[in-house]
Every structure is written in C-alpha cells, then in structure tokens.
What we know:
Number of helices: 10
Distance between the termini: 30 Å
Structural class: mainly alpha
Order of helices and strands: HHHHHHHHHH
Amino acid sequence: MEEVMCIWSDSWKKSPCYPKLSKIDPKMPSKRFRSLTAPLSRPQPSILVQLRTGRLPLNGYLHRISKAPSPLCSTCRQALETVHHFLIDCPTWRHERWHVAKKLGRDAKSLSRLLNTRKGIGEVFKFVGQTGRFKANYGDFTVNI
C-alpha cells in the first residue's frame, strides 16, 4: 500500500493542478483531507476540491474554457472572478464575509486557512450558501461540520 501511495504522490506532483493546490495544502496527498471531508455531505468534498483548484462556475474559469463572455466578476464587474476574489475580495459579498471574519479573525483572509481547516471549510460553505452564488449549479448548501 505504501508503494502505491509513493507512486501516486510522485504522479500527483507532476500534475498541472499541483502548484496551485500545494499552496493551499502542501501535504497533499494526505489522510488529512479525508479526515477533513469525512463529516461533509457527498457533494461537498467535490465542491471543496473545485474551490481549491479554481475549477468551478466562476467567470474567470468559465471564460478560460469559453463558457462565459467575460472573466469579470458577474456581481461587481471590478476584477477577474476567481476563488480568491469571490471568497476574500468581492465588495458585493462584504456583509456575508463579515460573518466569516467574525468567526475566523484574520484567518478569513487566507485561502489556505479557509480551504484547509475544518472551521474554515464550515465558514466557506456557510458563506457560499448565504451568497446563493452557486445555487443554480449545486442547489442549497447545508453545513454539517
């Protein structure tokens, strides 16, 4: 089993997703991700991986794959709509983000803390649910962390 994990780990480090994901979770692949996602509902780990990789229905990504006419944020139109912009910078969601900051303090400004800690993941899913940003794609978000 350990040999398989070593092979998989080496293969993972050659993946184009590795540089971006390693900034959020430098120990990937690890058992920690499984323990972090164990209490989540079935679709939530998938959405978490999409948030970590930036491959979810935000205009920055959708424009890159020719599914949106513009990469600009659909709500503020001030910047590229990326995961970082959506979770940390977009002025449209200032009120919803305030609740996250109240719970997490300065960790609310760190993608690594938001997407790699149990408390952060719980707050991210609450934030996403409050914004309704992905309701058309994923339905209502419920948090069970």
